[in-house]
Amino acid sequence: MRRPVIAGNWKMFKTIAESVAFVNALKPKIRGANHCDIVVAPPYTALRAVADASGLDLAVAGQDVAWEKEGAFTGDVSAPMLRDAGCSHVIIGHSERRQLHGETDERVNLKIKAALAAGLLPIVCVGESLAERESNQTKEVLEKQFSKGLGGLTPQDFSRIIIAYEPVWAIGTGRTATPEIAAESHHFLRGLVVTKISGESAESVRILYGGSVKPDNIRGLMAQEDIDGALVGGASLSAESFAAIVGYNS
Ligand code: PGA
To answer: How many domains, the chain?
Structure first.
């Protein structure tokens, strides 16, 4: 049995005070929800405050990480620093980093290794653009992102990795992939884990769906065999809608 993960990616939203208010509003709404891991990824400035306010109820993730531990890298934050700020997880290779900050699969790979070395659980994002989907390149793109981004990892490394399938055309557009479309890509990704890592890793790796997940579409997505959770952007910003997504099983 794979334990589901519901993760909220706040992107560049919320001050420290707003972040703490969110956690305090969310906690009573998710009391007793022990069917899944619940993760939030606030901006760097609010990590420590969210970790302190969350206690054991929520896990905290960074939204990106540097591949070096320390050094002359203005603006970057390293994996040990994320740990120090209270993080247990980190999002790596989000399509907004790929599109707006020149993130490459090679860098994704270095960042995953740095995160694992520091004891963080990487949530690694992959997904095709609209043009790639329309020209039937989805599988090719996923295969390339997987081979390069997740290359050189052992089954042991893989036991600490979470994959997020996020079709770029579904992010922030209100255009969710249908559960069937998402399931097809998830199935394909799990097959890549079988051939490139191990059958056991494929059985246990959690593959999340991301892209316009909302309280009214989460159930259909979670009903799919290969969908093990969600990475939620816009709908994770309000405690009400995030709690409703966490409560998909009720
Ligand atoms: P969205 O974002 O839910 O707002 O589409 C998802 C993501 O970017 O991870």
So the answer is: 1
